[in-house]
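Reopening this ticket.

The earlier resolution said the output was attached, but the attachment link was broken on my side. Pasting everything inline this time so it's all in one place.
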Amino acid sequence: MRRFLLPVLMFVLVAAACFQYWHWRGRPVPLPDLPGARFQCLSYSPFEGSASPLDRDFDVPRPVITRDMEVLKNVTGCLRTYSAIKVQGDVTRIAHEHGLKILQGIWISGTPEDNEEEITAAIDLARTYPDTVKALIVGNEVLLRREMTGETLARIIRRVKAATGLPVLYADVPHFFKKEPAVVAAADTLAIHILPYWDDPEPVSIAEVQKHVAIIVEDMRRTFPGKPLMIGEIGWPSEGRTRGASVPSLVNQARFVREFVLGANRLGIDYNLIEAVDQPWKRVPEGTVGGYWGIFTADRELKFPLTGPVSEWPHWRAAFAVSLGIMAAFFAYGLSCGRIGGVARWIAFALLAGATGISLVHLYDHIRTSSLTVAGWVFGAYMAALTILAAVALTARMEGRIVAGAAAFPRVLGRFGDREGWGPARWIGAGFWIAALPAAMLALAIGFDGRHRDLPIMGLWLPGLAILVLCRGIPGNRPRREEVWLTLILTVAALMAFDGLRNIEMLLWSATVLLFAAPGWRDIRSEVKFLLSGPVEHGSTDKTERDGDGGKGR
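Inline output:
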């Protein structure tokens, strides 16, 4: 009976800590209420399933748009569209039936034929539904994309204004209005885009963002005195990776939109919030964050209440239950095998069980929000398998069934024969490459082109810890050449990912990558000495010894 006392005590303590963690994650955060629980205007693009406006055959059934109008009219009386042709034009027709106003978008690009189709369709909609189309937005970030000169764009703006008699706007980031006076003169109103998450080089934090917005608005008013302004796009994502000090989260999104509306009222400026509904297709060109700017989910459910407190994990009890179940499975194994002895090992085992449970829940949430294709789910399953195997390997280490030390790469491949079979060291060496090589490839991708890439910390930190603990190399002075070069790649990739001290998520990612690299650091000096010593003579046995166990696999 006494042998169960310590394990049960450890289980209760770690379960209590796990409960407190999830309770903290799910705590209601007090926020200011949205005035009237309504928005002035919301960007809207119709979609169904995986449909994308970038597809040539893009189409959305009319009942889907009708359903969206029924949902959206409860929170706004105005929608901004981005195109006037095909299904995008249907939005204006259906909005008319539901009493919604439209900021009619006209998509202007570098293709004159497409522009003509857009202009003709928009003019027709404006004439057919004069009580619905309140203004036309001729072009969206055309200058930013460098698809047209300012003079050419100004001529199109004047043409649309003359044909409709309605107010005509142009929408872009503030910088390009300052560069193109012809566009400013032609447009009735400047629709400025303020997306603090995407600001370069210093994305701002949620605590600083309202002041940041106010500064931009006041600067534009000073630059263009007397020129009407509105905020054409503004918002905050609820999912995705951190950029600088900008952290996407559900609570931060709710805080941003509520505080922004209050601030816009104080500034006396009209606005359009991006966006009405999450757009899954944007996760392809923009990464996970691109698909989560909506006030409503892709299933047309309100993400958070517009008044009262907001919880980051409203279903935190279910998350705790899953974590507890994983912990229980670990403890059942620990008790049944009977090999974990001593207070220190039981504490380490309990912490490992709790960390594994929490990591797997977070990993599932990451896969759910980031994966658009089967490939994403496969990679997620790979990370989940790595996490479980890492926890099993660390448990075996605590039990004394395996010792630290991994076979070098040539030994893993069986270059020196298989007389000793697949012992623990060889399995650990294989595990190192199975985990570290994909991690290095991902780390390099993030280091070189990380703007739209996610950081799967919860799927890789535990495998990295297992590698740090188990892969301590081979005794003696024989560096493992392949492992050393992978170590260098991992180390450089970790340093390349550095994004300042304010980006905590990126710091944790770099630390995760360094877990994979750390076991090989001690061998770097020997590899450098070897490279500087000159070529090895033909027939020398030194190369064989350097590459691993020299046929004496551990």
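Reporter confirms the inline version is readable. Residues 21 and 302 are 26 Å apart (CA to CA). Confidence is low (pLDDT under 50) at residues 550-554.
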